[in-house]
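Appendix C. Worked example: MADS-box protein SVP-like
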Amino acid sequence: MRGENLQELTLEELMHLERTIDIGLTRVMERKGLQIMKQLSSLQQKEMQLLEDNKRLREKMGLCMIDHASVSGLHEDGQYSSESIDTSDTLLRLGLP
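Step 2, the predicted output written as structure tokens:
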């Protein structure tokens, strides 16, 4: 396999060894290609799952921001209401500062 101790081989034996190595190399390359394709497919599936998770988290974060704004008295126009509301308990439950 490493090409060592070939001095005693005849031309026919060397040609046979070369064919055997070529066949083995072809099998190795095919197997390597299949493994790479399998790994690529797995990574693409993970990417899609992470993108979905990211989307879901962004939507959830948007809802938390809306909840935080409504609880703190912030209107959609960015103005605060004149009512004073104690939001510390609610904000702590939401995990917001």
